Amino acid sequence: xxxxxxxxxxxxxxxxxxxxxxxxxxxxxxxxxxxxxxxxxxxxxxxxxxxxxxxxxxxxxxxxxxxxxxxxxxxxxxxxxxxxxxxxxxxxxxxxxxxxxxxxxxxxxxxxxxxxxxxxxxxxxxxxxxxxxxxxxxxxxxxxxxxxxxxxxxxxxxxxxxxxxxxxxxxxxxxxxxxxxxxxxxxxxxxxxxx
Length: 195
Known about the structure:
It contains 8 helices and 5 strands.
């Protein structure tokens, strides 16, 4: 009988990168050489929020699998984006490997490196909060208010549950009559709070 650990799969993701590395064909060749059983290719530059191949790769992950990317710039557009993606990989019980940067979260050193990156990002957000807080207090004392939240807490919890069940952000956005970016921001905010 084959256990899940023995049947773990390497799932490749090749997004369009601004950096060279041979374009999409070169990225796919790297993923094949790395032993990826399935490869998801992002053939059009969908931007930060519209990457159906990445969504497909993340949904395909099973516990023990590894998501493999040729480099970090193939996978993410920013550090916050990277941490959001890696939190989804971790939630699936999977690992992550970047070939160019030699990052592998299935090893202790790789997990440590990603935790350090996450801590630096969290520190940066805390410093931004410290700089912003006095201005917010002044505005509040003067009676100025910010924009009200788009969703009530019950709706936000329901949306996050739908995303966790495997629905894409676009599908959830259609259900609620909002833009996909609104759903992605809510998901990103929840991931930040979980760090």
